[in-house]
Amino acid sequence: MDLIYEFWFEPEDFDLFTLSYGYMVGAIIFLAFSILNTVIYYLIIGKSTDAFSSNTVWLIFGLINSVLIFLVTISVIGFKLKENTSLEDIDIEIWIFSIVNAVAYGFISYFILSLILNNFSTHSKFTPFNIFK
Amino acid sequence: MAKLYLFAVGGTGTRVLKSLTMLLASGVHINVDEIVPMIIDTDINNGDLEKYRRIHNDYDLIHRSCYSDLSKDSYNNHFFRTKISKPKEISISGTSFGNLMEMIDYNGLNAAGNSETKLLIDLLFSNEVLNMKLDKGFMGNPNIGSIVLKHVIDSQGFKDFTLDFHAGDRIFIVSSIFGGTGAAGFPLLLKLFRSNLSNMNNIGLINNALIGAVTVLPYFEVDVTKFQSGESLTNSDTFITKTKAALTYYDQHVGNLINALYYIGDTQKSTYENIDGGEKQKNPSNFIELAAALSVVDYMNYERQANDVNDLSKFTRYFEFGIDKDLETFNFRNLISEHKYFQNQLSSFAFFSVYISNFLKNSFYNSNLAWRNELKINTNFLQSDFISALTMFCNKHYYNYLIELAFNKHGRRFVPIRLKFKNVNYDTVDEFEKPVTPELTPEALFEIINEIPARKSNSIFKKDLIKFDQIASSLAVNSQESMNGSSELRFIDLFSRTVNQIIKERF
């Protein structure tokens, strides 16, 4: 918990630019992938077939979303932004940031987008549930 | 509110009514607000009538759940759309007369001055016929029917009919020409309706009403050995002779009274067990009866604007029915193109029945199913009286009906739908006691309509399947049509459109 707290609220070894840039990149990653996944699930697949319109498949899509967000976050922040060259070099803070970005923010955004976009779907309109109907 | 008073006379009349009910259940449109069946049969306990009572009860519950208080022109071609009132059973029950001897007070003819009448009666009726109990019909003896059926006018059901009759209502009589009850009943009823001497209610309206009839020529035979051994009074060897005599009579006495007369018959005869009425008399449905039922639909389209006989362009017209080829086993392919509409409706209903028997339950346990959520139908719906009646109708009555049409002892078997059931014997008329589920694979769904396979578009990436729920969900989500009325109506409306779309896309 201390590590997470330090990373998000008391960064001592990051300068302000790198920190806010990292947040922004993380946010863009989870938002982009959540939008992409929900669009594929609800507006492409969900309009043509009901084969994937179940809570289980929806959850699997959510997990895939999180895994993708994690991989991309660690790649972009760990390798590109922090300029590490191997996995061993990546700080534990970046690992935790990527995990939180994927599991917490990624899944929450996927969940919220699901509740919005399912209204525009045909077969997945009630997956996982519909708050407007 | 125009009504059709449908007089179903005798066993054939009831079975034609059953076929008509199946047609109307499948959404065949008939140009009338309500059909009022008037069943005339002295054998009130016969198996066919009892079976029809159960069919009608389920039909009526489904119809009332969906279409009560709706205007006539809405939801055309939807399943169970036409109202069929509770059949009025005109009970001139034979049990109240005993036998013909008692009815005509034969013993009273021994009194002085009646000897000539008695001799005439002896000439017309044998001792067996005079002593025959009248509670099981007239067993192919129209000479008895013509006497007994005169009492029809005194029955409460008939009086109700005359009181209810309004301008614009029509009358249609269904009867066989070769039996007892029907052969006697048809000309007698017709004369009664056209007679201005009668003291019936609304006599003026009934006199001028449009009257149609279908008369069914011999299409089955019964085991004559039972007649020869004295076990039965029905002798099918005389059916043709009786038919000829009746046709001659009709030619002279019916043509000037009737407005539309449909003749239907078959050279291929079915063979039924020789049963003298009662609950065991359950003859399997025959294509002839289905064709006769089509004549009722046709009749309501005949001179559509005519309210009474004065509006007709020609007083009497005669109609016949034919199929494309003379085959012993045939299907939709052998119907002529004019019958494409019936074919589509009956095919739709077959798919609907399959959905009810094989898919509905599973669909209801899928909480994500779009059509179910969109229609706001919960799982309690599955336990409702409506679904029970629907299941009984589609998965018992309708499946039994299809099996009966394909009965092996029919001279001409009609096999329009191919469904495989466990423990079905096409040589007997044993019927399913409860709803059944046909054995069905996803591939077999494409082959349901006999010899007319559904279009399939398989590819190496995707196997084509007929997906009821997927189509229903698309229709439910993309149109608001399904949102009106009761949940029962929404359900029937959605699935009428769903199976119609399947038929349109695949056939």
Describe this structure in words.
With 133 residues, chain A is mostly helical. Chain A has one domain (30-133). Chain A has helices at residues 2-9, 16-48, 55-81, 92-117. The longest helix of chain A has 33 residues, at 16-48. Chain A starts with a helix and ends in a 16-residue tail after the last helix. With 507 residues, chain B is of the alpha/beta class. Chain B contains 19 helices and twelve strands. Chain B has helices at 10-25, 47-67, 94-97, 100-103, 115-124, 127-131, 142-148, 156-164, 181-194, 203-208, 224-228, 239-253, 287-301, 340-358, 360-364, 370-374, 385-405, 468-478, 487-506, and strands at residues 3-9, 34-40, 83-84, 88-90, 170-176, 210-216, 220-222, 260-264, 270-272, 317-320, 329-330, 413-414. In chain B, the strands form three sheets. In chain B, strands 1, 2, 3, 4, 5, 6, 8 and 10 form an eight-stranded parallel sheet that branches. Chain B has a two-stranded parallel ribbon with strand order 7-9. A two-stranded parallel sheet of chain B has the order 11-12.
